[in-house]
Fold this sequence. Notes:
The protein has 93 residues and is mainly α. It has one domain. It contains 4 helices and no strands.
Amino acid sequence: xxxxxxxxxxxxxxxxxxxxxxxxxxxxxxxxxxxxxxxxxxxxxxxxxxxxxxxxxxxxxxxxxxxxxxxxxxxxxxxxxxxxxxxxxxxxx
Length: 93
C-alpha cells in the first residue's frame, strides 16, 4: 500500500471542509457510508485527495452526479456495469 499524506478532518481548512461536504451532498443515500472509513469517517480514496480540495470536489462530484437517483440507472445497474468492467479489465476486486 502506498502512503499518501492526507489532511484529517480535524485539521481541514474551510476549502477542504467545503469540498468534502459538497461532494457528499451529491451522493445517493446508499453510497453515503464508506465501506472502509478512515478514523474521521471519510474514505481512504477521498482522503487521498485532501491536499488539493478543488481536485477532491471535482473528482468525486463527478461520481456523485453520475450516480444521481434522478438518472434511469439503479444501484443494481451500476453494480452490474462495474462488475463487467472489472471482469473485462481483469481486476481482482
